[in-house]
Protein: Arginine N-succinyltransferase
Organism: Marinobacter daqiaonensis
Amino acid sequence: MLIIRPLQENDLDDLHNMAASAGNGLTTLPPDRQLLEGKIRKARDTFEGRCQPDAGLYLFALEDTSLKRCVGISGIQARVGLNEVFYNYRLSITVRDSRELGVHVRTPTLYLTNDMTDSTEIGSLLLAESHRGGGNGLVLSRSRFLFLDEFRQHFSDKIFAEMRGVSDEAGQSPLWEALGRRFFDMDYVAADRLSARGNKSFIAELMPQFPIYLSLLPDSAREVIGEVHTNTRPALNMLQAEGFNFNGLVDIFDGGPVVEAFLHNIRTIRQSILRPVKRVDRPLLDNLSASDRVMVSNRAFEDFRVGTLPRQAIRDEEVQIPGPIMEALGVSEGDQVRLAPLKDPLF
Ligand SMILES: CC(C)(COP(=O)(O)OP(=O)(O)OC[C@H]1O[C@@H](n2cnc3c(N)ncnc32)[C@H](O)[C@@H]1OP(=O)(O)O)[C@@H](O)C(=O)NCCC(=O)NCCSC(=O)CCC(=O)O
């Protein structure tokens, strides 16, 4: 059985192994044990109430209960830009027009902004290679929306994700080579690692503060602005299906796009419903396709959990849940649980 639950200290080895095989550019998940340990600690402080929930870091593990291993991770940062300045470039247009000369020139231009300050960021989405395909990525990505729905008082109305931008196998980012590197003499991987250690705003402050005309950048850099890394296409696809759209902002290092949605418009949240639990004695049907399953979550903050059920489990007055799934969710008969689509609409 696969269950989403808060990330714990003993997930560190699994998390480190996944981060090590993920390649470059996953800024928030570098293969750095000390840093990952610090993140787990911050997330534990958040779930256990030692940190303001409105400023917390919520990290979730996808646990394969038969392997007793964490096989995926996803996260929510309740607010960005609280303790450091959060930078993006806004992709705008500069128009120069001269009627006398008959010239009308439109030049795409990057402006440095702090527009996402105070917004809620989802990120850190990573699934072990062994568990990709078959809907596990959908559970990992979309289960966060059940949490956001349940505890919306702690989050901003606007939810966004910075998608991983283009870099090659050797870790070279065409935008960084053309821009960042000119002002901060370091390769992209090293700069990315420094950002992960909390130095992103420090690096950003050394980068050009004036607008940048794209026509002055090489084609290789222009082509990747607003584009995602190949391995990130499924992540983008899942968010677009939830109603997230490109908001005109890009990452200042690799040019990856920022996508955003208002919380109340996110598809999972719009379609989620509550039902009381009815215990049933039925096989678990672990191998159903994503279209035949729905997500089910408990309503607990500290011990939030999400699993999946066959869609026929939802009845008008109740949801029928086999005992082992009730135990994994930590719910009893009669408790209300939240249900939402995994792939196709509930009804
Ligand atoms: C992103 C995940 C977790 C997704 O898991 P899976 O690969 O198992 O996904 P999946 O279930 O096979 O596919 C999910 C959906 O994407 C679609 N899909 C699959 N391949 C695609 C492609 N090449 N182009 C476009 N869409 C594609 C599938 O049809 C499916 O949608 P349908 O079911 O509708 O057909 C994984 O690929 C991964 O760990 N990638 C490497 C790490 C990474 O790049 N993470 C994102 C970083 S950016 C970030 O973290 C911010 C974003 C965020 O947090 O959400």
